Fold each of these.
Amino acid sequence: MNFKKWLVYLGVFSVLLGTVLTGCSNGASSSNDDSGDSSEEVTLQMSGWGSTPIEEELLNETLAAFEEEHPNINVEFDVIADQYMDVLKTRLIGGQAADVFFLDALEAPALMSKGVLEPLDKYVTDEFDIEDFQDPLLNAFKHDGKYYGFPKDFSTLALFYNEKAFKEAGLEGPPESWKELREYAEKLTVDKNGDGDPEQYGLGISKELARQFFKLKPYGAQLTNEEGKATFATDSAVQALTPLVEMYQDDKTAALPSDVGADWGGDMLGTGKAAMVVEGNWTIPFLENNFKDLNYNTAQLPTLNGKKATAAFTVAYVMNKQSEKKEAAWELISFLTGKEGMKIWTSKGLALPTRESVAKELGFADSKLRAPFVEGASYAQPWQAGKHLPIIMNNFNNQFISALLGEQSLKEALEQAQKTANDEIEASN
Amino acid sequence: MEPARKPTHSKEQRVTPPERKHAKKIKKPAFSKKLKESFSGYLFMSPTIFTIGVFIVIPIIYALFLSFNDVQLLGGTSYQFVGLENYTRFADDKRAIIALKNTAEYVLIVVPIQTFLALLLAAALNSNIKGKNIFRIIFFLPTVTSSAVLTLIFMWMYYPDGLINQFLSFLHLPTYDWLSNPEIALKSIMIMNIWATAPFFMVIYLAAMQDISDSIYEAATIDGANWWQKFIFITVPILKPVTFFVVVMGVIGTFQLFDQSYIFSGGSGGPNNSTLTIVLLIYQYAFRSLDMGYASALAVALAVLIMVVTIIQKKFFGEEKLHD
């Protein structure tokens, strides 16, 4: 009995001691600057989201090249695994954010207008060559005439298709228009055992606004107005999105990844659950690594209403306004978005270079699989629409899925999403 | 404590009556002794008081303060007193109404089922079946597992070609899209939560059942009561105070549903707001929109709601004490 009691005390004591000790070691490591005798050593903190091992390796390679060039600057890369923006904003408020961090174009307007980012204009030199960036991508991080970040890379959407499935269906070459794509999808949907549950769907789709918004413009519809409020509940928007809903509901030639037990489009194509998917260039290395034998090709997205359209996703490096090591932070940003750093980072084609000179040098425009993505850049619409886009996106995604499932008409869903989003935006102002 | 103190006190009084001045003199040490005693009491409690103060009391007061302000956090913190504006905002907030509806539905379905299931399981394990100790352990396992892990495992099972659908189609029953069908998603969470929390309350019931004296059952047996009658007329009424506790804890727990729906929907409350609960909405306003004032007002409203529901339950169950 006594011994048991003693054990309990020991347990409690060791737990308490453990907490105290870990508390101490945390404090110690954060103040551990290793300031040696050599000229002012600086340790920079950089935050980003986690990604694939290949990407991580490339980033480490790029950072190693930077540290070699700047021996007095150490870079600590810290991965925020989940809910990146929530964590980042909380850290910014608490004054604990990293010196340099990733920022998606979608979230950029809100942060730029809050004044938590350091304007970078005064650091820019001629050597940095700002003209070299592709304009739409550069402008995604411009606010009130100032640059708050420089795009590190971008991705566009293109059509991935399974060549073997095309051959089996007697199809040649990718569809030119969405109308044609719909006919293709019908031929590509295979239900061998006839249980109404096809083994191969024609098109793998995704329900997010990020993958749908670019369809609005060719039909003359607009996602948001100048104030950043949602304006997509129009007939032209319904017209733009109807084909997808019909393919899903009536034709049953399209499927969501969750319908077939896949995580995303690349997975659907790789496992043969879909013969076509609309995905970004990040899918190429994924397929190369996981589905080596897959016989696939890429093409520019089919035209909508006779017009070419695709989406561009871009991410920039930005500087924390509260950073105490701004000079070093700029060194890092200018290297990573400069010609040398970008060349290393984009060398494997996971993401495409935002600098025209680098794109030319790496020759992605001549690569069979990557050319459609590069060509798409000239007409792509950046995934950005005012500072309330996250709210709009959340509401659209919530309603669009119920329209896809047939619980309400597309028109109703869009109206509902627009109203809820705008109410929320108004209340938050 | 008290019985030990009483005799000394009365002793002092017995000594003092003759002179009043003396009484004063002697009272003093008694007072300082009391002070000393309460001081040492507070000293012992100080770690708890400190922790509760810093992590519970101050945040509560601060949340109340925030709920009357328009709070700007990003890019310079500022508070602006807005009176009840945050509270009147509920009426126009569609998502708040949806969240309230979802949460109410969740409470109304989950609490009765999990209470009933817990009672049933406890009754089964209280009887003398073979290997009941092993069953007790097995039943209790879900409660010990972290809810995040449970949710992830259930999500795998809920996938369109996951375990549950495979099982259903094996039995030629209709399969469902458990995760992304707005009609079903909340029910998927309900099933999971009932499965995970019923055993916890089962243990509470079980402990209370083992306290019921055998003599009552023996008397009932002599009177000719069968198993069912004994359960309904003896066990259930005696367990009433425990049921009160189980229901109150169940209601509080289900009103605060957050982690499961957060993981299920990736923080969005989707599909089509069907898994949006009040606490998830508070999280979204607080950390996604950084609207601390409104989020605090929602939190205060939730606290008031839970208190009201608890008081109603207390009236419903009568003024019975938990320890008898």
Amino acid sequence: MHWKYDGYPWRLPCDLTMYRNNPVMKVILKAMTWFLLLLPSLATAAVVRSADGETGLVKWHFTAGDLEIELVQRLPDQTRGFFLARGFSSEVADEIATRCVFQTIVRNRGESPDGKPVAIDLGQWRMVHEGNRGGILLKEAWIASWPAAKVSQASRIAFRWATFPTVQEFLPGDYNWGMTAYGLPPGAVFDLNVIWQQAGQVQDGWIRGIECPADVERLK
Amino acid sequence: MSVLKRICVLCWCLLCFAAVVDADQTLTPVPGRPVAPEFELQDTVGKVHRLSDYRGRPVLINFWATWCPPCRDEIPSMNRAWGKIAKENIAMLAINVGEDEDTIFVFTADYPADFPILLDTDGEVIGQWPVKGLPTTYIVDPEGRIAYRAIGGREWDDEQLLDALRTLQK
């Protein structure tokens, strides 16, 4: 193999141009360049499940390209307490609390060099539970189901802003958080198919084995 | 492979890195700078604030609630920012959504706020602004138009963010 150093004497070994006549180095440099150029599109979905050391609450951290989603278990009692403190009757607070609620954080990590927005529509997300496929619970359906006399205006305002918006576009750096509900009983396990759009392309990924938080009785 | 190509690759990598590093402390310019919806709200001491009262000054308008964790996180940095800009002809208004004075009074014992906190108890004002979630912040220019927005919390005492406000004064 011919290895010719054709650089100037003051060049440092890290100056890659001096390896231009070496065929092996040429291939390596080419591969490195293409790897760097294709890095964003190679960003496949990754899911990490972890548990909080103190509370024991489990969270699922999903990343794919610019999109980052975090689902953190909310104990039914936490959710019940939150809505009771905002004027909901115990009946309605309990109804919300026991429908598999997660604190949800969505972020555009802004890793694309051209900074494209990420759009999500929770109405498109699908969940699979015991072989059944369906949509998640949307805030509009909750609100529509409450007669005016049952839930006060102040409580509706709190619910509206505490739950995740159904449709939202995230520019690089934007994030939002709020509760999402999946309608399953405490302790149920399901797979979630998350769907989003970026640069006019629909993309999707799976978060599998999400566990609805158990209710107080089950923790005893 | 040309040296130029390698330089391009290096620049591209640096741009990606910069985008990641800066992702959290950004303000998004609002295209066309639409006119900010007018409001008239009382603050926690009963003083009435109209957005039009602040014409001629940049105004930071933050929508928040006490139960919102990222809102709580950014209140201390807003207070530090207020300490820096209060004398610079820049206004800061935090609009609380859907809560009463007592709740805010208890909250500010733990999270002091020297800037005005306005009460949008019935959620009417936030409904007129293009807010999707809390916290959301808008920067209104001296002509009363929405120049920037920030969805989610920020470290508001970051000089880069404050410079964006100061630039609007000129």
